[in-house]
Amino acid sequence: MSNTSTAFAPEPEAVEAAQTGKARTRKRWDIRRGGEVAALILLILVFSLLNRDTFPTLINLQAILDQASIPLIIGVGATLVILLGCIDLSVEGLMSACGVTFALLSANSRMTMDLGVWAVVVGVALGAAIGLANGLIHTLLKVPSFIVTLGMGFVGFGLASVIYGTDSLPLLDGGGIKSWPAQQFLNLPYSFWLAAVVVAVGALVGRYTRLGRFTYAIGNNEQIARSNGVPVRWYKTAVFTIAGACSGLAGVLTIMQLGSSPAQIGSGVLFLTIAAVVIGGTSLGGGKGGILRTAVGVLMLTVLNNGLLIAGVSVNIRSAVSGGILIVAIVAAAWPYRSRLRIMK
Amino acid sequence: MSLRKKLTLAVSTVAIAGLAGLAGCTSTAGDAGATAPLKKEDLVFVCSVINTTNPYFAANIEGCEVLGEKLGIPVEIVDAEGSSQVEISKIQAILAKGKKAVVFVNTVASSDAPVIVDSVKQAGGFVTIWWNKPDELNPADIGNNFVAFQKHSGIDSGKCTMNELGKAVGPDAGIIALPGVQDSTTSQTRVAGLKEELATNWPGIELLDTRYSNWDPQLAYQNSKDLIAKYGDQIKGIWTADDGMQLGAIEAVEKSPLKGKVKFVSDGLYPPTIEIMQKPDNPIVGETLHRGWAASAIGLYTAYLAATGQIDPTTLPNEKRNSIFKIGCTTPETLAEAVELDKDPSAWIDQMIAKGPWSTEPFTLDRGGPEKIS
């Protein structure tokens, strides 16, 4: 499933540092990242030409960035987990559990409780706690991450249903925390700035910290990493905890955007995020890729979705057109470099 | 033989024995197609809903429980968790317990109906299906065990809400529509009603765009944001196929430059919708009036009457086996009626028991189905 080149494989310097001790010795043009950014620009240009009055507008940029904020945040955790060579399928269940918890701890129409900003903290902490459980079960009991997180996703949905109860749908009170994501800084919504901060922190952690370097090392070859004294169990658990916290934050932000709290949220987000991780060039096998790549992947998919809708493409063929355009965009962007790609798996 | 092999053999033997036992139970659970009057003490009410957290489905459960309490019959709730497979397997598990089941099902998908009807028939129970079934599946063709299919008209719903939206936005405005799942007959009929009303009474109103939002508030929020970016202040009204999606659309407008400039209509009149409609800055101008607790009580009571021999389904006319019940139109001015109804579902169910399932205002039988989209 991964499509990497042996000649121009995007080995981050961090991996090299972790494996060989040479820190950032070479700065090599990263062909695939360049290709994806070019594909994103190509998509933006095409949609701008097709819909000159409606696509390249500030309000549409705000809509795109607001929509991208949730998968961007989830993408940070998902990328780290995939870099380990694992997978986290609990995203939607965690979003639901954390979102409902946040809603019922905020000022709402059910008048349950109002913890103010602490409701956000509790929501994110719940996500981190479930992520921690994912990590511990995976590492201590040696259960494949696929199974653990799938099960924990259902636990999340169940938890959301129990917390939600049978009372009516809670509406967040007007103003305050509900209006936060739509407020703007430099004409862009806070929801996007929050996602940008999470992505930036994630990228820095991935590149410049021991946690990031060991994540790449474990994903490359867990056995070698362990032989070299990397406390694999600890770092894997930490990464799953971070991923859980990201899902929790995404759940909280979703409820803030919606202004109300259905018992289940995040439908389709998991698939979109994993697709973005792969399209961004992170290998599902682990050890190769990065958070900034995922961010480009998320933006590509969001722009594509928005652009097709704005262009008025019928919903009946939108999915097929979406896939086709994505392939054409990536092929076109990487075309000049095709002769340099020796092996494509 | 190693310990592992012995364990494997033992587990396999137990599993096979268990399956054989289960098969035995299943085969003896139902005397196929029994239609003789059943004793009340042998009955169990089964109330199957798509999930337990949606306000409408929660109201379905409330209706089942109130009716069960009034008739002294235990109620089993089936939470389909949004899955046809879960729904069917849970219903079959209850049928296998042995008691005669009187079943109300709000089906996850129309294709579930034949399987459920067949299972109930095999177990000698009685079932009424609400909202979704294939048009070609007729209760009269199946026999007494499939007592009735019942629904409110989607076309009437679409016409009612579009008419209210037309009155609010004027004859030359632009609107957008957010239907539910593309292949849902409920959504399709509501959209058909919307288009019929537009063509008949509001030819000057332009339906700018239609975006399926899968009954999902989050998707409705995102689609609304995209469409606001595309059409801007051309959008004067938003039509949604249910209240959940309406909440998402309202939030998208609230967080855009169109705040305060767009009117909304939808179907369901969920409790949160009532809260919004009672506020001074309410943007919702039209809703339909039908109630989840009334639907489940009507459905379950119809099946109960057949199970206990108080009605003979074979003698009923088509409209009582393939039924479309009246649906009301609600505006902020007439909201009080809905609020009053919601105060005491139990009193309405008392009336329904006294008058029969087809004659209790405001949810009386309107006509026979199936509902055809022209």
What is shown here, in short?
The complex is a heterodimer of chains A (345) and B (374). Helices cover 67% and strands 1% of the residues of chain A.
Keywords:
heterodimer; A: 345 residues; mainly alpha; ABC transporter involved in vitamin B12 uptake, BtuC; two-stranded antiparallel sheet; 2 strands; disordered N terminus; B: 374 residues; alpha/beta; Rossmann fold; 2 domains; 7-stranded mixed beta sheet; 6-stranded mixed beta sheet; 14 helices; 48% helix; elongated
Description:
The complex is a heterodimer of chains A (345) and B (374). Chain A has 345 residues and is mainly α. Chain A has a single domain (13-340), classed as ABC transporter involved in vitamin B12 uptake, BtuC, CATH 1.10.3470. In chain A, 67% of the residues lie in helices and 1% in strands. Chain A has 14 helices and 2 strands, in the order αααααααββααααααα. Chain B has 374 residues and is of the alpha/beta class. Mean pLDDT of chain B is 88; it is low at 11-34. Chain B is elongated, with a radius of gyration of 23 Å. Chain B is built from 14 helices and 13 strands. At the A-B interface, helix 3, helix 11 and helix 13 of A face helix 2, helix 8, helix 9 and helix 10 of B.
